């Protein structure tokens, strides 16, 4: 289990600014969590805090009971926490099979990279020898990136807005990919997303706004809240804690 205990993140500037405020979260094994909420709410910062890109100003992060707060990105990666970038890097001269072999090289279990490609919806014979460069579409690149995350056999994988920059058709496939890998792999998956299709995959949904957790519950409860809120024209009673419109709560 990955646990964040009273985690805050402050950045220094002309005036100091608290990006994350006293976050308490538990991520259990084999579950999918979707983190959603308005832009600037702190979602990407939360992902970076989990990954070790940022270290918290205060609070503690534990993985399976071990304090990992002081560990950096490389040390956390070694412990099985992985991060998929919002805009995946592409390397000239590197083939898909090289990328996947590199990713699988630290995995003690033997991984068949053709199976991996299949699991993310790509046909191995068409993709193994493709260059990891701009010739791959956004959707293809996203799926290859998911395959690299799977190859590493991570305990926790964080995806920051995997839907960004891909078309509707590829997106549909991407959602299916997450659903399928959830069944097959043991990884705890944390997806930052605004997409209802992705939210539907979640065991639990976390809503972040203003650097805080404004709601967290089982998928159906949160989704029902979001729907009610969307339907309410500020006259009906809304689900408390979701959507946060003061007028609607009256
Ligand atoms: N390194 C940083 N320095 C200063 N402000 C930052 C930094 N990273 C993020 N922020 C600010 O923190 C807030 C939360 O950002 P972010 O976590 O990217 O939100 P989200 O992913 O929910 O859109 C935003 O106001 C953003 O401008
Ligand atoms: Mg973000």
Automatic annotation (TrEMBL):
One matching Pfam family: ABC_tran
InterPro entries: AAA+_ATPase, ABC_AA/LPS_Transport, ABC_transporter-like_ATP-bd, ABC_transporter-like_CS, P-loop_NTPase
Keywords (A to Z) from UniProt: ATP-binding, Nucleotide-binding, Transport
Annotated protein name in UniProt: ABC-type transport system involved in Fe-S cluster assembly, ATPase component
Top-level division of the source organism's lineage: Bacteria
PROSITE patterns cross-referenced by the UniProt entry: ABC_TRANSPORTER_1, ABC_TRANSPORTER_2
Gene3D superfamilies hit by this protein: P-loop containing nucleotide triphosphate hydrolases
Residue ranges constituting the ABC transporter domain according to the UniProt record: 2-235
One of the record's GO cellular component terms: plasma membrane
GO MF entries: ATP binding; ATP hydrolysis activity
């Amino acid at each position: 289990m990955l646990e964040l205990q009273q985690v805050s993140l402050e950045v220094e500037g002309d005036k100091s600014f608290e990006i994350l405020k006293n976050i308490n979260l538990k991520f259990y094994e084999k579950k999918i969590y979707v983190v959603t909420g308005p832009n600037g709410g702190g979602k990407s910062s939360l992902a970076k805090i989990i990954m070790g890109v940022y270290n918290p100003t205060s609070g503690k992060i534990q993985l399976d009971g071990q304090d990992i707060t002081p560990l950096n990105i490389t040390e956390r990666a070694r412990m099985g926490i992985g991060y998929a970038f919002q805009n995946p890097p592409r390397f000239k001269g590197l083939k898909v099979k090289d990328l996947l072999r590199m990713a699988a090289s630290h995995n003690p279990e033997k991984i068949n990279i053709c199976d991996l490609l299949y699991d993310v919806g790509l046909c191995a014979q068409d993709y193994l020898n493709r260059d990891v460069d701009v010739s791959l579409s956004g959707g293809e690149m996203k799926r290859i990136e998911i395959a690299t995350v799977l190859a590493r056999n991570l305990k926790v994988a964080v995806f920051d807005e995997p839907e960004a920059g891909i078309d509707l058709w590829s997106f549909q496939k991407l959602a299916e990919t997450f659903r399928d890998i959830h069944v097959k792999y043991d990884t705890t998956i944390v997806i930052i997303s605004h997409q209802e299709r992705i939210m539907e995959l979640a065991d639990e949904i976390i809503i972040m706004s203003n650097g805080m957790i404004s709601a967290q519950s089982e998928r159906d409860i949160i989704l029902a809240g979001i729907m009610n809120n969307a339907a309410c024209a500020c006259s009906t009673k809304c689900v408390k804690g979701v959507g946060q419109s003061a007028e609607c709560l009256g």
